[in-house]
Design a protein that fits this description.
The chain is of the alpha+beta class. It has twelve helices and seven strands. The chain folds into two domains: about 180 residues, no CATH class; about 150 residues, Reverse transcriptase/Diguanylate cyclase domain (Alpha-Beta Plaits), CATH 3.30.70. Strand 2 and strand 3 form a beta hairpin. InterPro entries: Diguanylate_Cyclase (IPR050469), GGDEF_dom (IPR000160), Nucleotide_cyclase (IPR029787), Rev_trsase/Diguanyl_cyclase (IPR043128). This is diguanylate cyclase.
Length: about 350
C-alpha cells in the first residue's frame, strides 16, 4: 500500500541530514528538544506531510519561534496514536538523551574555540608591540603550536562524536517510523486504519487541488456481515474481513491508499483516476470477491460468498473533505438500498 506523508522511507544519509537540521532549527528557535518536537521538525523538513508544513509555516510567519503548546498541538494532530506507545516512549527517551549529548558537545566546542581565539589574540598583541625577545618568541610559537594541535584534536573528536550521534539518531528515527507505521495499520487486515486514511485523504486532496488532477474515492461495505458473525462465529467474521482487506490491497495501483474505514467498511483513495475508471475498478473488485465460495478447510462447511456494496465519488477541487466522503457514503447507502452487491456513483458536481 503506497501512502507518501505516512510510509515514506528515507536512506540513512538523508535521514541523518534531516535529523541534524531539525536539531539546529530547534536550537536556533529556542525550542525544547523533546522527542515530540523533534518528530514535528523532522517531518516538516522532510516534507512528508504537506498539511503539517502549511500549519507550521503559518505559525512561523507570526514570529521566529513556536510555543510549547503549539508544538504539542501539531504533534497530537499529525502523529499522536495510541498504538506503539511503549516503543515511542522508550525511543523518545533515548532520542532526548542523544539530543542533550549533541548540545553538550557543540557547547564544549564553542568554549574550546573561544580559548583558541584568546591564544591567537595574545600572540597578535605581542607581535604588534614589537618588543619580544627570542626566548619569548620561542615560547609564543610553542603556545600557538600547542593551541593549534589542541583545537585540531578537539575538532576531530567533536566530528567523530557528532557522526556517532547522527548515526544513533538515524537508527532511532527508523525505529520511530516503524512504530508509526504499525500505529497506522489495522492489526487484523494489515492495511491502513482510519487514522492513515484521514492523513492520506488530506495529502491526496491537497495534491489534486494543487495540480488540478483527478482523485476518486471508493467506499465499500460487506453485505450481511452480521450473518457471518451470528451464524458462524467471530473467527469466520474476522476471516471475511481479512479476505476483503487482502483483495482491496491487491487492487491498489500506484499511489492508491487502501484502509479499513471502520467495522466492515473499507475505503480506497485513487489519485489520478477518472470516475469511469474508478467505477470499473470498483465493479471488478466486487465481482472478484463474489466469485469465490468460502468454506471450512477441515469440515467442508460452506459459508457462502462475500458480496459488497460500493459507493464511488470524484473529488471536486476545493470542496470540504467531509463533503467528499459524505458523497461517497451516500452513494454506498444507495447501493445498499437498491439491493446490495452493486456499485453506485455519486452525482458528479461541476468543477
Amino acid at each position: 500500500m503506497a501512502q507518501a506523508p505516512i510510509f515514506m522511507i528515507e536512506d540513512v544519509d538523508t535521514a541523518t541530514q534531516h535529523a541534524a537540521t531539525a536539531i539546529a532549527e530547534m536550537a536556533m528557535r529556542d525550542i525544547s528538544p523533546t522527542p515530540g518536537n523533534f518528530c514535528v521538525w523532522y517531518h516538516y523538513l522532510a516534507g512528508t506531510t504537506p498539511p503539517l508544513r502549511q500549519d507550521l509555516d503559518a505559525l512561523l510567519a507570526q514570529g521566529n519561534t513556536v510555543s510549547g503548546s503549539q508544538m504539542q498541538a501539531l504533534f497530537d494532530k499529525y502523529f499522536r496514536e495510541n498504538g506503539g506507545a511503549e516503543t515511542l516512549q522508550s525511543t523518545g527517551d533515548e532520542l532526548q538523551a542523544t539530543l542533550l549529548d549533541v548540545i553538550k558537545q557543540v557547547s564544549q566546542a564553542g568554549i574550546d574555540a573561544g580559548a583558541f581565539g584568546a591564544t591567537l589574540n595574545r600572540a597578535s598583541g605581542s607581535l604588534v608591540d614589537g618588543r619580544i625577545d627570542p626566548g619569548a618568541m620561542k615560547s609564543l610559537v610553542a603556545d600557538l603550536i600547542a593551541a593549534t594541535r589542541l583545537m585540531s584534536q578537539k575538532n576531530q573528536s567533536l566530528e567523530a562524536q557528532l557522526k556517532a550521534s547522527s548515526a544513533r539518531m538515524a537508527v532511532m528515527q527508523t525505529r520511530l517510523e516503524t512504530a508509526r507505521r504499525e500505529a497506522m495499520t489495522d492489526a487484523l487486515t494489515g492495511i491502513g486504519n482510519r487514522k492513515s486514511f484521514d492523513i492520506a485523504l488530506q495529502f491526496r486532496a491537497h495534491q489534486a487541488s494543487e495540480h488540478k488532477g483527478e482523485l476518486a474515492l471508493m467506499l465499500l461495505d460487506i453485505d450481511h456481515f452480521k450473518k457471518f458473525n451470528d451464524e458462524f462465529g467471530h473467527r469466520v467474521g474476522d476471516q471475511v474481513l481479512k479476505i476483503v482487506g487482502a483483495k482491496l490491497k491487491a487492487s491498489v495501483v500506484g499511489t492508491d491508499a487502501a484502509a479499513r474505514y471502520g467495522g466492515e467498511e473499507f475505503a480506497l483513495l485513487m489519485p489520478q483516476t477518472r470516475m469511469a475508471d474508478a467505477l470499473d475498478r470498483a465493479d471488478r473488485l466486487r465481482q472478484s470477491l463474489g466469485s469465490h465460495y468460502l468454506k471450512n478447510r477441515s469440515t467442508g462447511q460452506s459459508y457462502g460468498t462475500v458480496t459488497v456494496s460500493i459507493g464511488v465519488a470524484r473529488y471536486r477541487h476545493g470542496e470540504a473533505l467531509e463533503e467528499f466522503v459524505n458523497r461517497a457514503d451516500e452513494a454506498l447507502y444507495r447501493a445498499k438500498s437498491q439491493g446490495r452487491n452493486r456499485v453506485v456513483a455519486a452525482p458528479d458536481p461541476s468543477r
